[in-house]
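EI: anyone free to look at a 657-residue chain?
SC: sure, send it
EI:
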Amino acid sequence: MLEVNAIVNECYILRKKVGEDSFSEWWQASAIFVASNFLLRFIKPEYASNEMHIKDFFELARKRITIVSPAIVSLVEVDMYQDRFFVASEFDGHVHLKSILDSGKHFSMEHSCRLIIELAEGIGAFHQRGEPFGALTPDCVAVHRTGDRIDELKLLLPGYERFFDMVPESRTDDIRNTWGYASPEMKRGKETDTRSDIYSLGVLLFRLLAGKIPYGSRSGVLVQIKSASPTHVAAALARRGMPRDLTMTTVRALRKNPSLRHEDIMSFISELRHILDARREATIKSGSVDPIADLATLNLQKAKAGVREIVKSLETVDYFRLLSSESLAKPPALIETPGGGEDFVELEELEAEGDDNDEIPTELYVEAGYQAANAQSKASDPERALPGKAARTTVVKPFSPAPPVLMVPPSPVVFAVPATAMITAATAMNSNAVQVFSSPATSASPIMASTIAVPPVKKTPKSRGGSPTELVWRHSDGTPLEVAKTIRDCVERARQGSGIIKYIEEPLAGLSADTVDEALAMIRRKTFFVDLGVLPADFGMRETIELFWKTSGFSQPEALAKENAPPPPNSKTRSTAALASINAKALLGLGTLDRPLVLVAKGTDAVSRSTHRLFLELAKRSIRAPFCGFLFFHSGKAPYWHVLSALNETEKDSFKG
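SC: here you go
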């Protein structure tokens, strides 16, 4: 039995019990020969009864003693006292994060991002060794506070996932606080890799932002097999006023399929840093205080946290320069957070019951989430009732698939999505994102988007060349200045690992062309820029690929060159679609977040069907790649199989300078 002042293994003196988590009792202890405090976590007897589990737990703990990071509480030893197994680590009055969350503590968007970045950096220490951390639960996070300020947030080792399957189903809260943070592949008993940790971080990020885990309160023991619903995650964060890019990062981290998540922990951290720094910069420029100034010394050792280190921690946004800036800007506006109520709760419960469809890109889940949030906001706000009609209460249902004909809001950025996929999607949109720009009728015309009707699927047989009737193609009018801006915006989006293909109508010579050329010249310096020039009419895929590698300055990989070589007579050849897929994958692999691949080509309305297929494959794969494709075309009638043929019924004029 554990008692105050008990001497443990002639090394520690138990001073007091300071709490417990789901799997252990926390005791503060002092060393007999050293004036130091330690935390002894004694595994609860019900979880120490399985010899195999406890053996695995302690083997893992001993293996991780050597891992050191500012975001990790250092392990001292693992041992046994009487009949109790324990883990010893440093202690300075920490509590576990679960106790703080259970107390109802809320964190701002900026604080949530900063805290998750810190934990992700700690997990990165494991990834550098080529191993995942496991399931990151709030029980495994130690927090030290000075008043209301958090000055330490660290991982507690080794992690408790070895005990998850011993949690009784009668303890619903314990199941939600353990299995709720495990990745879908861990729940299915499959081998996990570092992307499993990204899912756990995504759950915790959603918990900090939304105040709950993303499964719905009715999930109960089903949390052991459920994955997060991207529909629910996106809509829930949109309703709570989260910026779209933060919602995108959270949804991506929580995808059921590991291949749809961030490729590695550094990509996840990079996205969060970009979001946080942009928010801080805008806030400071507006004359307000840095929103995370209280976290300036997070996890800096107190004895070493001098002025130089504190200032250094603020350099990410050049704090003092911004305070003196003459150009003051307001922080990015957040959408209004809706009120609660039974309808609101029921709506989110129903959303959380949805599943994750691999065929739906993260970007379109997010788009549907914001549409759902805006629809609910309009339905529940009397101020937005139509003129002349009395306001009424409306129960908003989870966002359902849109019909094949989509209405497009006025915007210079419009997506084209497969109609067939939309029918089965749990959201309003789905799959391949491609943008088509045409010019306004006059230079003063407003930006307008056209709706393209999708022919019935049964009347439009699928062609091997990629018929445009498989997609909903929509175009948006824009002035040269607006197109130039979106070119720059697309590159920034690519730096976040979210690429796009954009068809742009060839501008008139003169000011219009100069404006677009200047935008391309500006991005050339900081990207892997490949300009194919004007593609000859009927230019084939093999010729296009050969031109790409010659222009890029790189040699075509030998294996790829073999695939692209003309086949010997009477031999089997790959289909156009298969060859396009192989080449698109190889091209997209050249881009990085620091230096995205930018592909520019002109005359794309007259290319061969095989080259067109290559562009379609790039569009399909670019959604999750650091890539931009700017394909210029001339107005006129395109071949029936070309995506641009969908624009034949819309009016397009040349750019007006």
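EI: Residues 61 and 157 are 7 Å apart (CA to CA).
SC: 👍
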